[in-house]
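ok so I'm stuck.
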Amino acid sequence: MTHRHAYALLLGVALLWAGNYPLAKIGLHELGPITMSALRTLIAAPLLVLVSRLLEGPLPPLARRDLIAVVVLAVSGFVGNSALWYVGMRGTSPANAGILGAASPVVVALAAATWLRERVSPVNLVGIGLTMLAVLLTIAQGSFHVLLTLSVNRGDVIILLSQSMWVVYTLYSRANLSTFSPLQMLAGAHVVAAGLLLPLALVEPYLAALEGVGSHVADQRADISPITRVWRLLKASTLGRV
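replied:
not stuck anymore, here's the structure
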């Protein structure tokens, strides 16, 4: 794969990911952050396993290094990052989340230069500086007083924490010792993440009600299972197109 093709694929991913921000805000009106994360993995896992099987055949024998890699990637990329990201999205705007998300590749580039000895060009450094300036302005809401008093928005801070998990995922996906192909690794990580998130999603409404999160809204969600809420959301979207 040439650099041009690689950058074209990355651009496509960025364009697809951009739609995730407004859609997440809409979904969070009906579903909790853990449930949203679980739905993503439950939909993606069987599709990725099927594609992996069709394109690359059965999985090779599972070695310990493969299992460790799959679990680390699942926990960092699809449990920690995804769940924290949805929690943060409840307390910030899609625009803020998008800008703060730019901090992730900056940290990845700096960590890769230190850990993996990858080269950072002067142009890269200029981009890193401008990105960090944008992140600081977003967190500070345009006011240096916010930074000095540390009175930042809680949702913005959680988004940054989720990006730190994504940094771990990105670097470890490059440095792990697994013999799995990237597609096999992605499929396995989604399967593990689905297994971890599904039980949490089933009890999420009840935990939210017990902790008093969302007061009246949380009480209502405790009386409705996540499956019922997903059905209502799909039904509402279908009716809206008629």
